[in-house]
Amino acid sequence: MLAEQTILRIPGPTPIPPSVNRAMNQPMIGHRDQETKSLLESIKHRLKPIFGTKQEIMVLAGSGTAGLETAVVNTVQPGDEVLVIITGAFGERFAKICQEYNITTHLHDVRWGNAAEAQAVSELLKKHPSIKAVFATYCETSTGVLNPVKDIAEAVHTNSDALFIVDGVSCVGAVETKMDEWGIDVLVTGSQKAMMLPPGLTFIAASNRAWKVIEKNKQPRFYFNLQKYRDNLENNSTPFTPAVSLLFGLEQVLQLLESETLEKVYQRHQVMMNMTRAAFKAMNIPLLTSDPAASPTVTAIKPEDFNPEDLRNIIKQDFKMTVAGGQQHLKGEIFRIGHMGYCSPADVLQSISLIEIGIKKIGKDITLGRGIQAAQEVYIQQL
Amino acid sequence: MLAEQTILRIPGPTPIPPSVNRAMNQPMIGHRDQETKSLLESIKHRLKPIFGTKQEIMVLAGSGTAGLETAVVNTVQPGDEVLVIITGAFGERFAKICQEYNITTHLHDVRWGNAAEAQAVSELLKKHPSIKAVFATYCETSTGVLNPVKDIAEAVHTNSDALFIVDGVSCVGAVETKMDEWGIDVLVTGSQKAMMLPPGLTFIAASNRAWKVIEKNKQPRFYFNLQKYRDNLENNSTPFTPAVSLLFGLEQVLQLLESETLEKVYQRHQVMMNMTRAAFKAMNIPLLTSDPAASPTVTAIKPEDFNPEDLRNIIKQDFKMTVAGGQQHLKGEIFRIGHMGYCSPADVLQSISLIEIGIKKIGKDITLGRGIQAAQEVYIQQL
């Protein structure tokens, strides 16, 4: 096997563009020097279109979970009631964080593979009028569902005064996101998915409504105190040492996204989703999610007549290609293909052609090339 | 389009493995320091299996053509008669270099796309008994032909006392090469093809018979004087400043080749050739060369009902994928796909799936997926 080549198609971390790797290799600079201030100033303005917001976006050194915990500890405190919408493992994570902080947590548990429905959220809010915040996941990485956060935001604001807090980790930067227009009060994402960076940064923004809550919130917090980040950002600084190399990389990521244009980035992800889904439909291998619930960044496949782990093993062995397995009760039941960030239709075609070989080699009698053909047709029609 | 992604599938320069790029980024060292001596010592032993020789392999800073000229000026001088076997543009280059130095040059001109035949070489040597050197091309990059250098070497040594000098630029490191066993007297290759490095190094080795000629050769030469390189190499040094970064990279390339094993590297290239050829046969698009004449490193395709330049343009535009066109009288008649060096069966599948889309988009009514299917079947049967 070709030494060293790896094909990473998990839903994050995702491959790093070469120019981003080069940018991250710049010599270290002092984190209080003017160079860092200039870097932070350049970044802060250019992140806003990705979130669809006029608010400041704070960048913390930490993983996506650090961002989710930051959202919780800044907006709620013990005794508060919240609603957490769970459509998979990352919805559950929001619930666990809330429970850790002794927040009274109502759950809206949706069958894994399905999207949450705004109507159900409305009903729960009517039933529990004290709910102060609703937590949702935009793309549920564990199932490949893209939840209708725009509709849910409307349901939240129509039926309550609660804040609407969204985990956008596995899709912001790859799908249209209009934080201000849709009424998202707190939006969180991470660096290692559509943002094409290594793990290590989390991004978070808050609405004016959210800031009023945050300023009054008594929950103890130090590193995760968003006010400190906001106050420092006014002077193009950070309260604690920023992850400088990742910021170098982020500046280059912004350059790449701007050069492609966000509109084209979102279109590319739509086409990659459609190519992937068309391929498995053509192979008669079931998808976990329906077309309307599907995320442009990750696709979960739920085969009926072969073991996804056998497939994952053989493509790893033959091609050093990695796709993700299932989590929790979907372990061994599904596999998940990431198609986000530094990933192109050409990469999707490669992934599918290798998966076809893998499926054949583990003994399922498929017609080779059929999935590829369907994906090629989608490409020709849609791009 | 995904900013920055490029898919380079020309027959050299070829993609650089990430670890080789990292190796080349090491801090510069003094070219007369012990570090450089250690580097040269490590390299010189490890290159020998690639050439299939016990002779020293000299590494010059220069392109492949510098290596070809080095072979000429060290072995022949004005008044000498030579035979140059021409199967394409790089055979012609050997002839032009000989002619530049006023060497009496007999040509064995083979129709482009065909391989040279040992029998014809035997006859020419019998007809011109004064021939002192025979120049041949192992892989003719311009046509994708792999010439039978083992058979030609036998013909040369059976019928003459001439030296047999071989341009191995576009295949050594990707195909089996037994310089000593086959009787190649001078073998040249370059860094930017199967050796997975940027252009800038040329490699050259000579047999004991060749060294006797080289030592007596009166042709003026300074930078290209092989004796200087040999004498310096005894002390793990070079007569002129070596291309240090490329040597850093070369050390890592050797690591990669050793970790895969040369046997597996050669097998991988065979399979990539077979996959590529099977794909175009399945699409009913003619190949320029016959199966026995085909090179494992590059495939030339000669379509009858579409313009290869249209295809090259559309895949460049859609995918930033580059394949090569034809040279000289084959310009506009063929396109050439490189599949050597840092290239895998997975990459071949990607290339073919993109070329299928390109062919469809320029208006030829092909069945998508058919070429891929044939290539996938070859992969499953052969690897």
Explain the overall architecture:
Chains A, B: Belongs to the class-V pyridoxal-phosphate-dependent aminotransferase family. 2 copies of one chain form a homodimer. Chain A has 383 residues and is an alpha/beta fold. Chain A folds into 2 domains: 7-14 and 261-382, Aspartate Aminotransferase, domain 1; 18-258, Aspartate Aminotransferase, domain 2 (3-Layer(aba) Sandwich), CATH 3.40.640.10. The first copy, chain A, is built from 14 helices and 14 strands. Chain A has helices at 18-24, 34-51, 64-75, 89-100, 118-127, 149-159, 179-182, 208-216, 226-234, 244-260, 262-282, 308-319, 345-361, 370-382, and strands at 7-8, 57-61, 81-86, 104-109, 131-137, 139-140, 145-146, 163-167, 186-190, 201-206, 298-301, 321-322, 324-325, 335-338. In chain A, the strands form 4 sheets. The first copy, chain A, has a 7-stranded mixed β-sheet with strand order 2-10-9-8-5-3-4, with helices on both faces. Chain A has a 3-stranded antiparallel β-sheet with strand order 11-14-13. In chain A, helix 11 (262-282) runs parallel beside helix 13. The first copy, chain A, is globular. Chain A starts with 6 loop residues before the first strand and ends with a helix. Chains A and B meet through helix 10, helix 13 and helix 14 of A and helix 10, helix 13 and helix 14 of B.
